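Homework-ish question, so no full write-ups if that breaks the rules, but can someone show me the predicted structure for this set?
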Amino acid sequence: MVKVKELPDREFLYGHKACPGCGLGTIGRLALKILGEKTIVALPASCMSTVTTQYPQMNYTVPSFTMAFAGTGAVLSGLSAGLKAQGITDAYVLGIAGDGGTADIGLQALSGAVERGDDFIYICYDNEAYMNTGVQRSSLTPLGASTTNSPAGPASWGESRPKKNLFEIMIAHRIPYAATASSAYPFDFMNKMAKTKIIKGPKFIQVMCPCPTGWGFPSHLTVAIGKLAVETGLWYLAEYENGKVKMNLVPKTFKPVEEYLKKQRRFRHLTEEQIKLIQEHRDQEWQMIRQRWL
Amino acid sequence: MKHDLAVGQLDFLNGDEAVAFGAKLCRPQVIPVYPITPQTLVVEKIAEFVANKQMTCAYIHVESEHSAMGAAMGAAMVGARVFTATSSQGLAYMHEMLHYVSGSRFPVVMMNANRTLAAPWNIFADQRDSIAQRDTGWIQVYVENGQEALDMIIQAYAIAEDERVYTPVMVNLDGYVVTHTYELVHIPDQALVDEFLPPFRSQNAIDFAHPRSFCITAPTDWNMEFRLQQQQAMERSKQVIAEVDKKFGAKFGRYYGGLVEEYKVADAEVVLIAMGSVIGTARIVIDQWRNRGQKVGLVKLRFLRPFPQEYFQGLSGRVKAIGIIDRDISFGYEGALASEIKSALASTGKCPPVVNFIAGIAGRDITKEHIAEMLAKLFDRRAGKEEKDLQFIGLRWPNG
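A: Not a homework solution, just the prediction itself:
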């Protein structure tokens, strides 16, 4: 277990230009505090690269670089092989990519890298849309969310397809370690990061990262929204390790989904009936979780 | 070309195998590669070398060409020597990554088996694939045969890894015509190659003691200066290419002439210019016409980038008519070589008549008869007879 007192005072990511209330800075900062200075950070086109790698201001005190949108998995393989070829065995290779960069355009490269068993850590910060380009839907946008290219209107209730299950896609690869996390649960996230230091081969963590700008909530509510996602059962904290899934936090009873949905502009248009559909979808998902993993 | 039989071993290899031997001699540390016809024999031969412990490197079975170049970039970023190979659709698929690697100034070396692009789909040779990548910031060299392919892989590293250059190099072989044709090839001694190409110590690689950002986001008020540096590196590479050829020749006994090779051009009045495997055929026809007393010559354009405009400026006043063979076409205008060369010729203010011959598309043979037909047309043009500026040669029907 990670102890705050044992975390280094040194910062490896600071001075970035993320929006107020964005959980991204916290995720990057905490991840690097766990991994330390011998880490290379690979960033595809995303909010993270945009707010941290603008020449001549560099926000990392570790080597970092911007990568092609589709190529995060591939470049992690290359870094890992290159380090090994030079006899460097004590460095970490960390990719930080968004939901679109991971689950859409970057999925093939990630799948290839995981299948090959290359040694790297991959964080998908999931803010549930292409935020950097102005809030367009991705395959991880949840049911009913209004985005700029799936807007709600008389003929649309927003995103019409449920969120793709990336965690299960990683499990299907029999990856050594996969986890889901949330920027609202920093200790859970840091403990998971600590595991990635020890386990060899590919490691994957999908971190829900509420986005005040894209989701439409006041910037001081980032943590509250993140917690509500878990408390309503619309997101879950889990780990896959040694061939088994462990649920890290299972609410005894779920809070009504309205409590989560009504606090965000992206869901404001939803009718009672549509909210009921979202709740039903959640219940189906949990039925599958209970059958297989609990 | 002077061949020194005492140097290295003589073997019967196809072009792809020659490339694989060339790569092996350069001791690349990481090889991310994806198979595509007609490059596959390179992929297979290298895999065999690795499996048989004849080569020590990380061979990455990437799931696409985009990822091949992505992994190449990652490995180069930590200072590893990297090799990869591709062709046609694969090269097109990695287009985005070509810019990333050249813009980050990583000296990756890649073999490309020249093959046409779909549609209509076809696996045979033309140079539309690599010429479409002309502006990706890669040095491009086109070879005539297996020996030159092997030698240019070795030279490519020496050029790319020179601090004055730090630019990736693409070595192009016409699909099948070079990649699958068996020839006697000299395989140089490993010890000599090691002397020629010592282990790579990159000044442009990750160093944990001095953390830097690579392949950064450069905003508008900085970006253009990075581009200027790419252009300057390309300009400097002309000198480096000449130096490397000289050094290589001194060590291995084979010289290629750097950016261009002239064949019987000194007193020529009519000259053909081409790239790649067609040069071999053209040499024979030039010899035949020379034997008949015709003052004909041949220019083998070896590097498309950097482009030897100075050479063509010098050529413009020396000859009476020029034919440019393009194994490609830019639809809506003409062959790419024609545009490039005509631009250099015209800059002198005394451009001789030029005819652009489009030939050898999608593997169609360019025969000795076709070359002779081109020369005849050039003599007609020189004599003032009407000849179209752009002509397709070797069509199923006349009047191309």
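Now go work out the reasoning yourself. Hint: The interface with chain A takes residues 29-30, 32, 57-58, 60-64, 66-80, 82, 96-97, 100, 104, 206-208, 211-219, 222 of chain B (CB under 8 Å).
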